[in-house]
Amino acid sequence: MSFRNTTYVEDVSPGSGALPPRAWYASSDAKSLSLNGSWRFRLSPTADAEDDSFAAEGYDAEDWASVTVPGHWVLQGHGAFGAPIYTNHLYPFPVDPPYVPTDNPTGDHLRVFDLPEDWPGAGDAVLRFDGVESCARVWLNGTELGEFKGSRLPHEFAVGRLLRPGGNVLAVRVHQWSAGSYLEDQDQWWLPGIFRDVTLLHRPAGAVGDFFVHASYDHVTGEGTLRVESEVEGRVTVPALGIDVATGESVTVPVEPWSAEIPRLYDGELATLGERVPLRIGFRTVLLEDGLIKVNGKAILFKGVNRHEWHPEKGRALGLATMREDVLLMKRHNLNAVRTSHYPPHPAFLDLCDELGLWVIDECDLETHGFTEQDWRDNPVDDDRWTPALLDRAARMVERDKNHPSVVFWSLGNEAGTGRGLTAMAEWIHGRDPDRLVHYEGDWDCRNTDVYSRMYAFHDEVEKIGRGLDGGTHKRRELPFIQCEYAHAMGNGPGGLADYQELFERYDRLQGGFVWEWIDHGIKHPDLGYAYGGDFGEELHDGNFVCDGLIFPDRRPSPGLVEYKKVIEPVRIEGDGADGTVRVVNKYDFADLSALAFEWSYQVDGETVEAGALSVPALAPGESADVKLPEPPAHGRDGEAQWTVRALLAADTVWASKDHEVAWAQLPVTERIKPSVAASDRPTASERLICLGPASFDARTGALKTIGGVEVTAPRLDVWRAPTDNDDGAEWQSDTRYGLLWRKFGLHRMHHRLDAVELGESALTVRTRVAPAAWEIGLSTVYRWTSDGNRLKLTVSVTPEGDWTVPLPRLGIRFGLAEADAVRWFGGGPGEAYPDSQSASMLGRWHSTVDELQTPYVRPQENGARADVRWVELGGLRIEGDPEFWFTARRWTSEHLDAARHLTDLTPGDRVWVNLDHGQHGIGSQSCGPGPLPQYLLRAEPAEFSFVFSEVR
Ligand code: GAL
């Protein structure tokens, strides 16, 4: 029996052989060589299955497979290299720290490289790994360099002495599981591999080592103070500011400050004897004052999101273009902050945040959530043996990222309980960088933190905190509050965002939050569309809980992002359309409104009849002004009229082009004229049919068959919707979970009993009772049909019977059409909306197709409703509502939608199913947060609503 040297895998230490951490930068003149690309690869089942002879020179790896670096091997090789595993917080191996399973997929990576011709002969060199999951051992030209853990952190090795011009052999052994895995229990896929860049950096004699840019801003004097501490002495120049000082020396000059809204960066340079390094300097001061987080003297409001790194094919190995796309999408949707949940991102992402402007909470690569299953017993963060590993992680994050003005908070990690290790991290960070604040959510007493942070606190608790009535330690009571996670964006939703925002804006102590989360971590799959937990046959998994983002895996914005954009818009436009004045409020923290151009337009029945520019003063932050609208156009007085006022970018910016819409509002002027149909036609019956106006009905059942030439599957009352993830709620939620209650009470299997078909003088009346088997509750439902000869009106009256203790998913009718494709409507759009997620629904005339009306939630569920619809045309019919209604159309039924697990399960049937709803239940965010607020519940109450049908040719 042989025990090869694999003890380092289960060693709590962070590793050995690596250089001390330092700032991450790209040199202007020192050479570098990217070692990204195709590497030779061999996978073995255990850490010690193979010896390390592959690292020796001359090893023949010709018959090995290959993988792309950066990359995760489980996402390459078409299944030949194992599969991803998704767990939320459960460790996918027995919990016995620091030990890991014998079955420990181990990937040997080999790369042979030559130095470029112009690689300098003199000087040293450093080999940098930006991210390897979870533990790596490294050799160059047969010499072992060391081993390390800390997956999303950089590690460097001095290699100059080992390099030669040609045929360098770099060997890296990567173990999927290690002691480090216990510290990396984030809610995400477990994805081993060398997933960030590998780079060889030349280090000339006299090169820059580590350096720390301190650039503060005094909002009283308008001056910035710059001091660059540098391990190697040199000079610092900033031409635009006339700065030319020695390192270590401080200089104060008038500057424009950096903020997420106006990300003013000054280009500078740090020059030592042997190297020049470009600096991008942003002057800003972050501090806690008057119980508030202030930047440059002003309290800020985070309108943030939690971002995991994700790409549907590459996992966490993102390219620069993807990172940029994320930041651009955030900026274009009015976000101003990002929490790098739950590890430091690729460093280039932070460059983008500096450049384009986002506040950043930079979070350490630390989570031990699985220990919650044993009441946090043996939690590494409360065990001194692990403290060196924790401090190593803190240092690798802070040292790497300390020169980014965008980073305003260091976060110790996520969901790691509490313990001395965390305190040690906080103390070290405060000492090393007193100019930033420390965040950690798990510390409700705020012993180690500078902010009281929580996740998924319900609206009422947030309000209590806002009012300072929440209790807690004395320290906590003096701190500001943020929700580092809220509004769980899993599937359809989140609902209730506007209600949170209203609280954040009402109470000073509430400094905003970070929606959970940015992107669905769906994995592109040949048969399933996007795969989620369980799709790879994992022993333990958490299903589609990994798909809870504001953007779909392909980065298309979901309705949740569009809603969030509207809710956090930086300009409030309000007023009374009838009196012709709008109030414009600047809600930016720093920017005035000079970058925006305002426009008005006037719509009658959804059609714009006139539009023009609106002159709005360049209000300072917090200021407001009343602005007079023009006289309403004379030709637009009959019909439903409204103003739409929009704030657009006045010129191109780095993140969006001119005319990009930033904010908008609609102000009603005159009310809608409701459809009216004189009940002048009389229903007539023959043996099989009843005829009324343009319609025919089944004589026995009273079921509608045709409207003119359009054949329909008869409308019936419908209360069921395919439960959303938020309807179903998370399994740990003890609160009422409506999705489950609906099934318990059989709302997905209602029986329709026919009680009477009555032909009256001017109406056909069909009486029914709609009720679930096994229960006494029911809905007495009367359909009353009338016509003026041309148009057909249906009035539905619903009276609940029995003891209804649950709200309804929806209340309306559903019918089928043999054919329908193009859809036009006047109502809310262009996207979907639900009662507590309808801020972004804009009243207008819209058109689409049945297929485009669908929102592709990775796990299929209720979606696609359009709100406030006055009328809709599809399949040869025009339908007007009294009152306005929710409209949904799809090529499958709600029952099919409910049964589907992936989008690929949804196959069009021979009908288009149309729902016209009088009511929809709210969405909430109970998949990890509160359910819908009481005002958004669809209670079973008596209701009456009508639709007018006519044929369109
Ligand atoms: C939080 C956690 C996140 C994620 C979220 C639910 O508890 O910090 O990582 O798991 O819940 O999606």
Could you explain how this protein is built, in words?
- With 953 residues, this protein is mainly beta.
- The protein folds into 4 domains: 7-203, Galactose-binding domain-like (Jelly Rolls, Sandwich); 210-299 and 380-402 and 409-450, Immunoglobulin-like (Sandwich), CATH 2.60.40.10; 579-668, Sandwich (Immunoglobulin-like); 684-951, Distorted Sandwich (Beta-galactosidase, Chain A, domain 5), CATH 2.70.98.
- Helix content is 10%, strand content 37%.
- The protein is built from 11 helices and 58 strands.
- It has a 16-stranded antiparallel β-sheet that branches. An 8-stranded parallel β-sheet has the order 30-29-28-27-26-33-32-31.
- Helix 5 (459-466) runs parallel beside helix 7.
- It is globular.
- Bound molecules: beta-D-galactopyranose.
- Beta-D-galactopyranose binds next to loops.
Give a concise summary.
By secondary structure, this protein is mainly beta.
| Low-pLDDT windows of residues | none
Provide the domain count: 4
List bound small molecules: beta-D-galactopyranose
Distance between the termini: 84 Å
Structural class: mainly beta
User: What's the number of extended β-strand segments?
Assistant: 58
Largest sheet: 16 strands, antiparallel
CATH topology of the largest domain: Beta-galactosidase, Chain A, domain 5
Mean pLDDT: 97
Provide the β-strand percentage band. Answer: 35-45%
Give the CA-based shape. globular
CATH level-1 class of the largest domain:
Mainly Beta
How large, in whole angstroms, is the Cα Rg? 31 Å
Helix content: 10-25%
Number of helices: 11
CATH architect. name of the largest domain: Distorted Sandwich
